[in-house]
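RETRY 2/3 - previous attempt timed out on the joint model. Re-submitting the same 394-residue input unchanged.
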Amino acid sequence: MNSENAKDSAEHKKDKHNHKLIEQIEKLTAEKDEIFAKLQRLSADYMNYQKRSARQISEAIAYEKESVIKSLLPVLDNFEHSVNGAEKVEDAESIRKAVKMIYDQFLAILKNHEVEQINAVGGKFDPAYHEAMMNRKEPDKEDFTVLDEFQKGYRLGEKVLRPARVIVNKLPASEAESAQEQNPPQQSDTDNPENED
Amino acid sequence: MNSENAKDSAEHKKDKHNHKLIEQIEKLTAEKDEIFAKLQRLSADYMNYQKRSARQISEAIAYEKESVIKSLLPVLDNFEHSVNGAEKVEDAESIRKAVKMIYDQFLAILKNHEVEQINAVGGKFDPAYHEAMMNRKEPDKEDFTVLDEFQKGYRLGEKVLRPARVIVNKLPASEAESAQEQNPPQQSDTDNPENED
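RETRY 2/3 succeeded.
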């Protein structure tokens, strides 16, 4: 009788344990389903985001192009007036002035887009902003001074769009030393922000 | 003895069942962990993609701006030559020719960016491409013909950057009819792709 009672009690415990295990299985299944649903939602979100992102990039590009070109329309207008209007003007000086004004307007608009000409002549040669096309020798100027410019350089913010193509002063070693004494090194005129005081 | 055997057998079955439940719990736990790990990886990927995407958009904008402006540097070069070179030229006709060439170059570069002038004068008024600044009455021309242009219009691909500002022919009803008979309606000259044959 005692042994039988003990067996019943053990069996009861097992039933209880069993029940707990089933509860645990139900809980785990629910949790797993929940995480899986989350995974599916996130996966769908991610795919949508990728599609949207590709569209956003092409829209941003189109918008930027449009905005830069729109900003230049006043230059085109003045160009057109000067080309058409100039037919009546016989005075070279007036046409010249008009062209200079359009050029300045063009540069001012580009400046609004953070585009600026690179200053070169008179400053020290800086390979980050200048491309040396040839050397010349001017003993009264410091070695490596930019003497002249073939082509203007341009930068967009910190980035060089095109270096200035320049002629650089190159003195023989002995003259370079004496030029150095006569003309103490001057600050580069390249508007290089890193070189600024 | 028999009842005891039966009990032992039931107990054995319960043990077996129990064992299966534990196996199922282990399996479910492993599956849940796996899905959770996937969710975490996807979530990290998504976050990285969002960061990268924001960077890609700003890079694409910068690249587009750079590319449009770079393409215009030859115009600026010729401008500069004409402004500087023109100092020596006293002949208005030569300067005029130079300006016309730069203008044409400018328009050609814009055409590479799909930017074109909207043709207006002589065609039929089209509110999608033209903005009527005033009306005039020219009885020998068809009603709603664009007579003159105050300001050039521009479009980028299909999109109007700026409509052409125009003067439109507006005839009284009676004259409009007779003009219609004398001058059969002509195809609009707006380069509107939807109007093209």
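Chain A is about 60% helix and 15% strand. Closing ticket.
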